[in-house]
Amino acid sequence: MIITIDGPAAAGKGTISAYLSQKYHLAYFDTGMVYRAVGLQMVLTGLNLQNQNAALKIAQNLTFPQMMELSVHPDFRSDIGGQAASIVSAYPTVRAALLNMQKNFALKPTFADGQPAKGVVYDGRDTGTIICPNADLKLFVTASPQIRAERRYKEFLQKGMITSYEKVLADMIARDERDSKRTNAPLKPAEDAVIIDTSDLSIDDVLAYITPLVEAKL
Hints:
alpha/beta, Rossmann fold, 5 strands, 11% strand
């Protein structure tokens, strides 16, 4: 079973992916982690995010242990990490360097402890269109920029990060535009994806809607 869940930031992809992976004993691959790792490494080493060659070099040498080490950094899931990921992921050379690793995971999905899984839930922006176009079920989860910015702003406050709703919203709109306009892998739903707008839905409502879709594919 391969499920792809694409969509913009703070739409609910992570929560849905974690739920489905646990309920159906599927591995969970957050494809954005590889780009966050490359972007954050550039930030931490003082490299210009506009330097495509530097980003490519880091992507070519990125290892799983390095990615996991970077994932515990405070800025890995912050707005800094998100913006950096959005910039480096727009580089065709960087995407090509990391694409095979993401695709091959579906051939032999495993959990973090190395145990085999019955399948995988991909969480990203182009998993249903580029990484796994033959997935069993494709979902595209979205919400209005204002709702998503409010969710992300509250997350930041809970983590003790100092920012403003206005800044989060502006950054989110800029990221949406950048992600949707990139030529190599634009943020868009696959033709056969189920589109779910979570703006006015609780997570329980969303899961209640999605679960039958998964059951029908099992």
